[in-house]
Amino acid sequence: MKSKWEKWEQTRAKGKKNYVIFNGLLGWGIPMALLYTAVWTYIQHQEIAFNQELYQTLIISLVIFSVAGVGFGIWTWNTTEKQYQKYKGNNE
């Protein structure tokens, strides 16, 4: 079984841009936008109705959560990279 840092070395070899897209945008931002839209619509109407309001909420959510997802991806990359560098410095 690979250690956390062995897995991180494989992830970081693919690059920060790849990480931000797949973990931040596609892994967090888009799913959160879909979930938020579904929950918000259900709370407002007690059902999921595919109407203009749902589509407007979805578009706004996709924009907001996509930007937040990229920010989340950058933040988690930087945080993990900082921890990795600290780990690597202690083990050299």
Provide a quick synopsis of the model.
The protein is mainly α and about 90 residues long.
Structural description of this entry:
The protein is 87% helix and 0% strand. By secondary structure, the protein is an all-alpha fold. It has one domain (11-90). Helix 2 runs antiparallel to helix 3 (52-90). It is elongated. The two termini are 22 Å apart.
Keywords:
92 residues; mainly alpha; 3 helices; 0% strand; elongated; membrane; transmembrane; transmembrane helix
Question: Radius of gyration in whole Å, from Cα?
Answer: 18 Å
Helix-residue proportion: over 70%
Identify the overall geometry.
Answer: elongated
Strand composition percent: under 5%
Q: What does the average pLDDT come to?
A: 94
Low-confidence stretches: none
Keywords: Membrane, Transmembrane, Transmembrane helix
Transmembrane segments: 20-43, 55-77
Walk me through the topology:
Elements (H helix, E strand, L loop, with lengths): L3 H11 L1 H30 L6 H39 L2
Helix pairs in contact: 2-3
Keywords: Membrane, Transmembrane, Transmembrane helix
